[in-house]
TrEMBL record:
This is Elongation factor 1-gamma. Residues 1-85 form the GST C-terminal domain. It comes from the Eukaryota. One of its GO terms (cellular component) is nucleus. InterPro entries: EF-GSTs (IPR050802), Glutathione-S-Trfase_C-like (IPR010987), Glutathione-S-Trfase_C_sf (IPR036282), GST_C (IPR004046). PANTHER family: ELONGATION FACTOR 1-GAMMA (PTHR43986:SF1).
Amino acid sequence: MHHNKQATENAKEEVRQILGLLDAHMKTRTFLVGEQVTLADITVVCTLLWLYKQVLEPSFRQAFPNTNRWFLTCINQPQFRAHLV
């Protein structure tokens, strides 16, 4: 498989920007909308799950503590744990 280093770096920069926005949003929140898990949380967690498992190394994720807290809070909810592999 051909690897394009520049494309990889560009993609990581886009992810960095998006996670930065999410991190700022989560600074004062437990969940994306309201005080309990909603479809918004489920959708975004499922979108990020593969990135967290396969792509984003811990040193990259370290810059987003609020996002990480929210992500871990969500995936440890019973309704998530019952369905995540």
